[in-house]
């Protein structure tokens, strides 16, 4: 990865950790929620979703505390998945999960196209202790979707 690209990716992560998309108070009456904790560092998140009959996310809100990686990952994910159809969302989530297990190798050009801003986390895969931070929100999303009756497996096919 070029130094210029690495700086761009770092800027995306810093921007999202400071200006968090989708962050807010979880509604009292939210039924499709998931609370996830990363036991290795203490990062945590509660995420709530509303989905339509086709499994498309119509609303998503999360509330969490943690490092810039976990908070930025939640922000990028939130910005990407609301309104995205279920098939594209699952492809994005699986590609992100796969990227987190590449141990510092870059995803393919096709995978980078799927990831868009989420590609900024490609360097995180070099640091196994941080991979769980980046995946925390995605696991919360999977749990909240399961609570809504939408079953997704982001590790399928690995």
UniProtKB/TrEMBL annotation:
Residues 29-39 have a biased composition (Polar residues). Gene3D superfamilies: 3.90.1010.10. Residues 16-39 are annotated as: Disordered. Signal peptide: none annotated. Residues 9-133 form the NIF system FeS cluster assembly NifU N-terminal domain. InterPro entries: NIF_FeS_clus_asmbl_NifU_N. SUPFAM superfamilies: SufE/NifU (SSF82649). GO terms for molecular function: iron ion binding; iron-sulfur cluster binding. GO terms for biological process: iron-sulfur cluster assembly. This is SUF system NifU family Fe-S cluster assembly protein. It comes from Boudabousia tangfeifanii.
């Amino acid at each position: 990865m070029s130094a210029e690209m690495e700086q761009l990716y770092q800027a995306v992560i810093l921007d999202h950790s400071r200006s968090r998309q989708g962050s807010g108070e979880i509604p009292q009456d939210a039924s499709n929620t998931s609370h996830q904790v990363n036991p290795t560092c203490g990062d945590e998140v509660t995420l709530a979703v509303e989905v339509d009959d086709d499994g498309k996310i119509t609303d998503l809100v999360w509330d969490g505390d943690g490092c810039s990686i976990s908070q930025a990952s939640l922000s990028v994910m939130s910005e990407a998945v609301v309104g995205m159809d279920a098939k594209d969302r699952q492809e994005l989530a699986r590609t992100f999960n796969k990227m987190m297990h590449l141990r510092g190798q870059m995803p393919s050009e096709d995978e980078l196209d799927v990831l868009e801003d989420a590609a900024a986390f490609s360097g995180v895969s070099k640091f196994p202790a941080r991979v769980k931070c980046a995946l925390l929100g995605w696991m919360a999303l999977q749990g909240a979707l399961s609570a809504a009756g939408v079953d997704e497996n982001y590790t399928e096919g690995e």
